Amino acid sequence: MAEILKGKPVADAMKAELTKKVEALKARDIMPKLGIIRVGARPDDLFYEGGAKKTCDVVGMTYEVFEYPEDINQADFEKAVTEVGANDSIHGILMFAPLPKHLDDRKIRALIPVEKDVDCMTLGGAAKVFADDLSGFPPCTPTACMDMLHFYDIPIKGKRCVVLGRSLVVGKPVAMLLLREHGTVTLCHSRTENLNQVCQEADILIAAVGRAKMVKADFVKAGQIVIDVGINEDPDRPGKYCGDVDFAECEPVVGKITPVPAGVGSVTTAVLCKQTIIACEQLNP
Ligand code: NDP
User: Fold this and answer.
1) Would you say the C-alpha torsion 202, 251, 270, 44 has a positive or negative sign?
2) How far is the CA of 261 from the centre of ligand 1 (A)?
3) What angle do CA 238, 267, 67 make, to 5 degrees?
């Protein structure tokens, strides 16, 4: 039986720490604030937004939602994002993606000030992550993966880390963060040969593929740490979520494993608040 690495204790500890930081900022008459930019009203975005607002309330910081219609034109949206970016009361910006197809995503992202880019939407933000510039912010999910590993005292230095998935949102940045902490990192993707064997070699396996239950018992080994980032509709239980890892198959084999739901996903909004508070501190030295 594996040890189940739940997200809630990690998020709770983080929120307690953040509450103190917000109090310290308030004592200096500074109120940290998250700006949420949303086009349209996709249910997934609204769900995440609800979680982010709740976490802001818990730690005592504020937020403002900037909602725009699905058919907003490029010029109006550029103006709107520029205004949110220039708003001195806002320290961190979350912009939901993907944007509607008629909007130029690359141009819009570039309007977010790098110092407020708490979810790594900009090329400047990504450059900081890849250059180990600690003033930058990785996307919240890779940070949540690292926070899980730290909270549960899992050593990274010198360990074989295999990341399954190479997106700019999860796979690549989490690989950089593991490398920063001296992991020996292999990044896998859809063209990787002998994928299950490569995964089996890992001490730490991070699964971020977006394929329900793809990681089977022959991908894992005894003692392995498995961090499951996936959020997929469960093909066996309509209306429920499951991870990229087949939990029922892998849990009896590995050493430690995160569940889905109640794993990494429970930590991401706390990370969003953490990174906004750090941005606020950096903007108010
Ligand atoms: P993407 O679709 O952007 O990337 C998926 C990656 O997995 C790609 O690199 C792709 O390879 C690789 N891949 C796909 N199929 C296979 C396969 N059969 N074998 C090997 N590699 C494969 O997904 P994201 O990175 O955005 O998200 C990954 C998962 O994490 C999703 O389930 C998503 O819902 C979840 N997620 C969870 C978050 C959280 O807070 N917990 C936040 C963000 C995402 P290639 O590059 O070759 O195409």
Assistant:
1) positive
2) 16
3) 75
* Residue 75 in tokens: 């010029």
* β partners of residue 163: 187, 206
pLDDT band at 50 (very low <50, low <70, confident <90, very high): very high
Q: At what angle do helices 268-283 and 8-27 cross, to 10 degrees?
A: 20
Residue ranges lining ligand 1, Cβ < 6 Å: 141, 164-167, 169-171, 188-192, 195, 208-211, 229-232, 244, 264-265, 268
Span from the CA of 190 to the centroid of ligand 1 (angstroms): 10
How far is Cα 210 from Cα 216, in angstroms, rounded to an integer? 14
CB-facing half-sphere around the CA of 200: CA atoms within 13 A? 11
Strand partners, 227: 206
Output the CA 147–ligand 1 centroid distance in Å: 20
- Strands 92-95, 160-164: pairing is unpaired
Minimal-distance CA residue to ligand 1 atom 19: 190
5-49 residue pLDDT tens: 999 999 999 999 999 999 999 999 999 999 999 999 999 999 999
- How far, in Å, is the centroid of ligand 1 from the Cα of 133? 25
Residue 170: other Cβ atoms inside 10 A: 26
Nearest CA to ligand 1 atom 35: 230
Q: Which domains does the chain have, with CATH numbers?
A: 29-113 (3.40.50.10860), 140-265 (3.40.50.720)
Tokens of 132: 């180990």
Residue showing tokens 């690292």: 146
Percent of the chain having pLDDT more than 90?
A: 100
**Ligand 1 atom 8, closest CA:** 165
